[in-house]
Write a structure and sequence with these properties.
32% helix, Ribulose 1,5 Bisphosphate Carboxylase/Oxygenase, three-stranded parallel beta sheet, Rossmann fold, translation regulation, 2 domains, 20% strand, alpha/beta, Ribosomal_uL1
Length: 231
Amino acid sequence: MIKIFKRIKKIKKNIDLTKLYNIDESIKLLKNSSKVNFIESIDIAINLGINPKKSDQNIRGTTILPHGVGRTIKVAVFTQGENIEIAKKSGAEYVGMEDLSEKIKKEGIIFDAVIASPDAMKIVTQLGHILGPRGLMPNPKLGTVSTNISEAVKNAKTGQIFYRNDKNGIIHATIGRINFHENQIKDNFNTFLESIKKVKPPQSKGIYIKKIVLSSTMGVGLTLDQSNLSL
């Protein structure tokens, strides 16, 4: 705890937590203040002007980040027939139907995304209690229930992220790693922000994007100055 306190104290010396930073300053500060012995993630939190208690104002979507998230994505695919080989050739780590379902139940295998062909949903729905809390339940609107298994797997592998607001109307996501080039982080940031703008519910009134905070895994959060952002 003492080491953590000293590290945070040192970081705060170079950062004014009351200041609004532009996106370029924020990225530079996060990169320069990273002093841990692992590659931190770059995370974003967006406070939205929505009423999360109303179902027609809740946000849920997906986007493909141009530079990915900087880690290997493990994909599980529920499908059958010729799609099994297609999924494997596309890079899926786990492929199957009832056998894959049993493996998940008994072995607790770890994966980051789940894809399903429509004819496999009868199997997938039985795993709702496992996949649901992890935000991994396949959904046609998110492209994770698809007849094009190859495209769905490749999207998941190359930077597709899923997001939804929490009970406070805040969206959290990872948009890269601290070792990314500054322009790569900025590209991912702009792509993610554009996606959030596109899914604004018509029922949402007033300011839609109220606050944006960028942070690293072990760092502090920097509030962005939105005056230079195209909101």
